[in-house]
Every structure is written in C-alpha cells, then in structure tokens.
C-alpha cells in the first residue's frame, strides 16, 4: 500500500533522513579541523602504490616503514615516483640523485647538506619541496580499466545483451580525478528491453591526508524507463578512511542541483543532498577484489523521496592486465511522480592498466 495512506510514517522517515544528513554534515565539519600528518608515498613501475614513512635512500634501495608490513626494502630500479612528507637521512645523495635522474624516477625531494654534531661525516637531510610541478598527463599518474560483458540466449525466447564500462583515475599532487562511462543494451525477441548510457566525473582536492573537497557531475540517459534523463552537479567535503595497496574506502557528502527528465512530462529541477561512497578491498594478495560504489540522494522537493544508484561486485585478476568480474547494480527512484526500479547483474572480462 502506498505511503500516502500513512502520512505519519512518511513524515517520520523523512525526518530520520534529514537528521542523518545533518549528523553527517556536522561530523565532516568537526573532522575538518583535524590535520593528520601525511604519509610518504612510493609509486612502483608495476602500478602498486605504497604508503608509510621513508627511512633511508641509498644507491640501490629505499627503506619504507609501514604499519602493515614493517620495514620494507624497495629496489630503486622498480620505483617510478616518490613523494616525501617527512625528513629522512641518507648518505652519498649526489650518487642517488644521479641514479634517480638516469632512470627517470619522478621525485619531489630536495637535498640540503647539514652536519651532525655527533658524527664525523656529513649527512644529507632530504625534505619535501613544493617547487616541482607534476602534470596530470604523466603516464604514472593514470590508472584505469574497461569491462565488457556479453550474453546471448536462444531458447523459447531469444535474448541478447551487452554492457561496456570504462573507468579511469588520475592523481597529481593533492588532486584526484575520476571519470566513468557506461553503456548497456538488451533485446528480447528483437524487442529492446533495456537501453541506457551514462557518464560521471569527480575531482577531489585533498586538504590533508584524509580530508578532501569533492566536485561531481553526472549524466544518465534511458530510452525505456519513465525517468529518461538524470543530471546532477554537487560539491562538498569527503573523508578517505584508508587508501593503500590493500584497498581504499572514501565517503563524501554533497549539496547541489539535479534535474529529472521524463519521457511523458516536463522535466524537474531541484536542490539535493547526497552521500557517496567508493570502496574496494583486495583479498589474498591482489588477485581477488571486492568493490562497491554508489550514491544515495535526497531531493529537497517532491520530485522523489530517495534516489539510489549502487553497485557491488567481485573481480579476479587472471593476469596483470586481464580480469574476470561479476557485479550487481541497483538504480531506484521512489516517492515521486515517476518511479524507477532497475536491477542489473553482469559478468565479463576486463582490462586493467
């Protein structure tokens, strides 16, 4: 039975959602006053990214102290980039600099010679500098994937569907950019039952190791559903719970403006509040991955009660480039003049770089 027959219950649900967003906003504001110490970051040539505290660099190795693996010794020949946020000691730095330059290792380290009163030899202190600039177009700044799924059934009914999803991420200095493009088409007995595509772009500006400000834009188009077009712009604070070689998890609360376009009615524009999440976790090394991402949006008018767009899935890396994936997605718009309730399960192969 519709919630219109239970106005008290609808008011309570709406009140709970508003209190939830208020609590999230207050938590983000309170946490923004904290500025934790940033960790050192080391990018490997195979795409891995390690975080910790750099303890020493010599001609051949870099020592990285981590909370998850203790003290790690990394081969300089396998390192593509270094970002240092702390002070460290090393000897014969001129030879190290020559080695880094000769092997094309990008670093934001600057050397200053000092002498230790307790030692007879000079020691070099290496610290962070902001003078060197990095381009977003550097090859080591990018990583991404493309997933392709296809299914064909020939029985009492003939069905055929395929889906393509392209995602990429770029990082440089304190910025992180992500974009995603997806396309899906499905036919049953030569009749199109699903046909949609979408794109999204987000940019994060980190103000500390954990906190960032996010700006997001998205657009969706659907040929079949009553809600044929969706677009939104938003901005707000975010928090990175963790981001290391074992996975990542971030949350962001956004305020912005959105638009719903209908196939049989004029479009609606409204302000909205959103909670976004992005999670992935590697299990058993880096071969098996569990991931989830999505957005829960609350329009600030009568266009809908709640809008949900969520994906959860698993991925198995067969090689460094090729992986198999299976995912479940749910798009839902409830409580407005037009409703959407679309569920999709897909599987296929992906390429990662």
Task: Furnish the topology, listing elements before pairings.
Layout: H1 7-31, E1 40-44, E2 49-57, E3 61-66, E4 70-75, E5 79-83, E6 88-90, H2 93-102, E7 106-107, E8 109-115, E9 122-128, E10 142-154, E11 158-172, E12 175-188, E13 191-206, E14 211-222, E15 227-244, E16 247-262, E17 268-283, E18 288-299, E19 306-317, E20 322-334, E21 340-352
Overview of this structure, please?
The chain is mostly beta strands and 353 residues long. The protein has two domains: 40-128, SH3 type barrels (Roll), CATH 2.30.30; 138-352, Beta Barrel (Porin), CATH 2.40.160. 10% of the residues lie in helices and 62% in strands. The chain is built from two helices and 21 strands. The strands form three sheets. Strands 10-11-12-13-14-15-16-17-18-19-20-21 form a twelve-stranded antiparallel beta barrel. Strands 4-3-2-1-5-7 form a six-stranded mixed beta sheet. A three-stranded antiparallel beta sheet has the order 6-9-8, with no helix packed on it. The chain is globular and about 70 Å long. The model is unreliable at 1-13, 29-37, 86-93 and 108-134 (pLDDT under 50).
List SSEs in N-to-C order: HEEEEEEHEEEEEEEEEEEEEEE
Query: CATH homologous superfamily name of the largest domain?
Result: monomeric porin ompg
Low-confidence stretches: 1-13, 29-37, 86-93, 108-134
**Biggest sheet: strands, sense, closure?**
12 strands, antiparallel, barrel
In CATH, the architecture of the largest domain is Beta Barrel
The CATH class of the largest domain: Mainly Beta
Overall geometric form:
globular
Radius of gyration: 25 Å
Distance between the first and last residues' Cα = 49 Å
Task: Let me know the average pLDDT.
Answer: 76
Count of β-strands: 21
Tally of domains:
2
């Amino acid at each position: 039975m519709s919630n219109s027959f239970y106005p008290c219950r609808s008011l309570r649900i709406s009140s709970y959602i508003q209190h939830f967003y208020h609590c999230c906003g207050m938590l983000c504001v309170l946490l923004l006053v904290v500025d934790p110490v940033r960790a050192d970051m080391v990018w490997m040539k195979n795409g891995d990214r390690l975080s910790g505290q750099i303890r020493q660099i010599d001609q051949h190795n870099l020592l990285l102290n981590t909370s998850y693996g203790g003290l790690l010794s990394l081969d300089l020949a396998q390192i593509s980039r270094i970002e240092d946020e702390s002070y460290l000691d090393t000897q014969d730095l001129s030879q190290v600099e020559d080695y880094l330059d000769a092997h094309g290792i990008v670093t934001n380290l600057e050397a200053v010679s000092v002498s230790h009163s307790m030692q007879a030899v000079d020691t070099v202190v290496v610290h962070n500098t902001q003078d060197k600039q990095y381009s977003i177009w550097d090859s080591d700044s990018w990583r991404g994937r493309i997933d392709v799924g296809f299914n064909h059934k020939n029985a009492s009914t003939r069905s055929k569907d395929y889906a393509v999803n392209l995602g990429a991420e770029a990082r440089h200095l304190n910025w992180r950019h992500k974009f995603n493009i997806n396309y899906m088409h499905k036919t049953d007995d030569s009749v199109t039952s699903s046909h949609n595509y979408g794109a999204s772009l987000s940019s994060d500006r980190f103000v500390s190791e954990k906190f960032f400000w996010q700006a997001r834009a998205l657009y969706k188009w659907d040929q079949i559903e009553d809600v044929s077009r969706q677009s939104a712009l938003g901005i707000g604070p975010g928090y990175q719970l963790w981001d290391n070689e074992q996975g990542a998890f971030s949350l962001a609360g956004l305020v912005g403006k959105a638009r719903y376009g209908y196939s049989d009615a004029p479009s609606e524009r409204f302000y909205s509040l959103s909670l976004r999440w992005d999670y992935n976790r590697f299990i058993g090394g880096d071969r098996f991955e569990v991931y989830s991402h999505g957005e829960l949006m609350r329009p600030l008018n009568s266009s809908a009660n709640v809008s949900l767009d969520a994906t959860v899935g698993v991925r198995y890396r067969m090689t460094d480039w090729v992986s198999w994936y299976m995912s479940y997605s749910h798009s839902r718009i409830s409580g407005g003049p037009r409703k959407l309730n679309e569920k999709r399960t897909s599987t296929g192969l992906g390429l990662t770089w």
